Amino acid sequence: MPEQLNERAALLLKKLVYSYISDGQPVGSKKLAEDADLNISSATVRNVMSGLEKKGLIIAPHTSAGRIPTEQGYRLFVDSMLEVEPLSRSLLSRLKQELDPDQNADILINHATQIVSELTHMAGIVTMPKVSQATLRHIEFLPLSDQRILAILVINEREVQNRVLHMQRSYTTEELHEASNFLNQNYMGMDIYDVREQLLQAMQRAREDIDATMKTVIEVAGVTFSESLQSNDEGYRVQGETNLVRYGESTDREHLSQLLELFDHKRELLGLLDRCIQAEGVKVFIGNEAGFKGLGDCSVVTAPYVFQGEPVGVLGVIGPARINYSMVIPVVDVTAKLLGEALNK
Prior knowledge:
By secondary structure, this protein is of the alpha+beta class. 48% of the residues lie in helices and 18% in strands.
């Protein structure tokens, strides 16, 4: 981080960043002098800009006469110059209505991601809850057409998961009722990972000497818990990638391409988001601060959401570095808090 800027230099850097965030155009000394309203000449502004450039805070893109912030310039701006805008009452009311706690966890998480994407015009991203234990409270199977079964699971205290299972044969209502009763009587209160493991062991021990009910249990429960565990391991979800295309008109197309390709780097991106789960409040990563190639001239803004007193996931947005931090940060922060509150209720 560069040494402390004097008041004039700090003000001009702040105005330059706000101007570039607003329209994506490099900022010239004349425009900056007008925006700053300091009653100083363009020549004086050029001198200050030269000093900011030497400190690595701004740079001239290509042959442009104007300047744009560098990664270091954005960081100084975010850390010490940013004026965050509080959310309006109407927006807060809308967020609370959208994140109605009567919805199940999956819908809540999708809504939260969609909300931050729509409000910020960026790509919304959320990691799936990393709940230390998924306890089976109740399970029920219902027959559907075309060799399908509806599995209804109650996990932990009140989370309901519905799974449509594609089976190798059809099952009668009576068969499925007996299988449900067996699982509820013998495995209620156990972690679903342990239930699946015990069923697999039972299948290996008794491949031939097994009654019809237990065979049905192993067949339908095996598929049910496999799909449940896969859904918990999907890592993260992204909504609104198409929002990023709007930045292509005023941003280097190579950077836009980098941004869209970023979502293919699943392991690296998930690693970055996982690092944010234990962080308090909002985290802002600008460019290379993310710690892996591919982020380029982009920013990630995240905030953790909490379930039963523990941070279990991260909600955030990804977009170009010239995002409106003043608006984006409180939107991400408040939405993550409301998502946690809704999940807890």
